[in-house]
Automatic annotation (TrEMBL):
Record key words, sorted: Membrane, Transmembrane, Transmembrane helix
Keyword Transmembrane tagged: yes
Name recorded for this polypeptide: MFS transporter
Taxonomy, superkingdom: Bacteria
Annotated TM spans: 50-68, 75-94
Amino acid sequence: MQDFFSWLGKTLGEIIRFVVDLLLVFFQNLGASARGFFDGLATSLGIPPTLISLAVLLLGLWLLYLALRALLRRRIFATLIWAVLGVTVLSWLIY
């Protein structure tokens, strides 16, 4: 009877170890993939690969999205304001 529980504990420990190793590899590869994606994006845009650059890029794209939404609602003046702001923010980033 003791051999059975010893085997059961060993098997359960190996399963837990396998799951932990699998999750560790997954999250390491996920981080490397995200880092590679952002480095490639920053290189193609000619911007430094920093967190602030990513935030400014997202802000500029969000402003352009607001301009598109205003255009679809036929708000021409709001479209011009959002578009000018979005292009201005992106021009600060991409030099």
